[in-house]
Amino acid sequence: MTASTLTSSPTETGSASRRPPRAGENSPLRDRLSPLRLILAILATLLFVSPIYITIVNAFKPESDIENSPASPPLHPTLSNLTAAVNRPDQLIQLGLRNSLIVVFCSVILIIPLASAFSFYISRRRTRTRAVILAVLAAGLMIPPQVVLLPTIRILTVLGLDHTYPGLILSNVGGGYFSFAVFVYVGFMRAVPSEIVEAARIDGAGLLRAWWSIVMPLVRPATATVTIFLSLWIWNDFLNPLFILGPEQGQTITTGLYLSLGQMQIDFGQMFGIMFLAGIIPVVGYLFIQKQFVAGLTAGSVK
Amino acid sequence: MTVTVTSPPRRAPWLRTLRYDAGLRALAGLGLVLYAVFIVLPLFMSLHSSLTNANPLYASSKFVGLANYRQMLHDDALHSAVIYTLELAFGVTIVANVIGFAFAVLLNRTNLSYRVLRTLAFLPQVISGVITGFVWETILTENGVLNTLLLHLHVIGQPIDWLGDPHLAQLSVGIVTAWVLSGFTTVVYLAALQSIPQELYDAASIDGAGPSRRLRSITVPMTAPATTICVTICMITVMKLYDIITVLTGGGPAFATQSAAQYIVQVAFTSDEFGYASAIAIALLAISAALALSVTHVLRRREVNL
């Protein structure tokens, strides 16, 4: 899903709501058909999101209700599934959320300055130099994680960082996520006039200063896009934490669920409770920043 | 990295530039070094070990030439994993694009209620593959939600083992993957629909074009770039699919739903054949790249012709 955001630029955050009304929308036939269309749209959407609906309602239902009427709303609402999920002796949810937050936070906070400074640096180089560097970086977006996983673990072993969080974070910072961030930043930095930077230099500011005080505030939308998508992808990452951290280290929310729930049977109630708690953070985050999210995802893909 | 310091007239400004710019160079260089260490170097290490019999149980590895690549030709488990992955890639791509396009046309209205529905339609894309796998497992398992509902409605007489029967399991993995990717395609197609100028539809209506003609002659061609993006990204995503299958079926029953990506991990970490695993990984990269490039090529030509 990375490639669609590559050509994003600040001007392309188009939104639907500003479109003038369609000419046909006021015709008598349209008027008669529009309630039908809305009903059809609601039914199709509800069917589409039914697995999410089932997770939410069943997280708040007693086990007998789940078994007898899994699709009904919680008629006897209970918090026992959630407390069962939170009170597990292995502290799956608490530790997983904590570890995932640490990995996401450290990875993103490191990628942003590195990728942004790198993008600023190459956006001041000649076109051909820039094109070569971007082509090398494009590989990072296309290479499947399985191809680089084994050597990455060997490199981390040499560095003494295998099976550690710093190792996982470092491989995130240097991996394909870096390419993604650079592509987003380079697109935005093209729109920054070089005169502004040169003026700052004449006033005695070094490039570092010019980048941090002038360019970074101008490319804030790029920083938002990078933060949103990298946070989501690193949060949802599975293969890398599974093998780089290994089974002994504390788990992230994805590997923790897999390693503790894959082995044994637990009742449906607790399962739905765990899934609800494990999935709620990205879902709520998405609902809050939906507009930037969709703009970042679709920018450049519709031209 | 090229350090291009244009030769200055005097020495002092040159030194000053170097000193003033050292901070940014260091930061940019650090990013590049990390990328070189964690993408470029591993890629070459993979290429190298694909030509050896590397195995963590051996003290040293030996150069074996193309033996690992020849071994792939006679590996039945690999063949069935690759065939299933390709079937999945084509099937899921078609289904996810048809659903995404239809959904986008249906939801392409600007009232509040449609905006709420559009928000919901993207949700599958936000949830991690692991959670998606577990949720669908509780739905599809033999005493799960789907069978309970179907039994209640008397659609079926006895529970269907959606994940236990090899063919149904293959189908189930496809449905779940298509579900996730449909959220993505819907959003991209919606954005494409909103960029079509209304004047085109008005002019076509005046010329007497009905709804189906307008769909065929305006909507489909005008969303062709979105189709290119959606098809390519669906293909690439399925070709490296790992998390959903691992949680949903674990590659079973009897390896029926094992993907190529899973097979690589199995060869690498269960059989410890690092050399062979690297060779398969390189081959998978080549197949995915060739597939993505040819699909993009065909679809770009289609964009022009439509």
UniProtKB/TrEMBL annotation, chain B:
Entry keyword set: Cell membrane, Membrane, Transmembrane, Transmembrane helix, Transport
One protein family per Pfam: BPD_transp_1
ABC transmembrane type-1 domain segment(s): 82-295
Location within or outside the cell: Cell membrane
GO cellular component: plasma membrane
Primary subcellular site in the record, as a coarse category: membrane
Record GO biological process: transmembrane transport
Transmembrane segments: 26-47, 81-107, 119-136, 171-192, 222-242, 276-299
InterPro entries linked: ABC_transporter_permease, MetI-like, MetI-like_sf
SUPFAM superfamilies, alphabetized: MetI-like (SSF161098)
Membrane topology: Multi-pass membrane protein
Family stated for the protein in its record: Belongs to the binding-protein-dependent transport system permease family.
Protein name, entry field: Sugar ABC transporter permease
Source species of the chain: Actinospica durhamensis
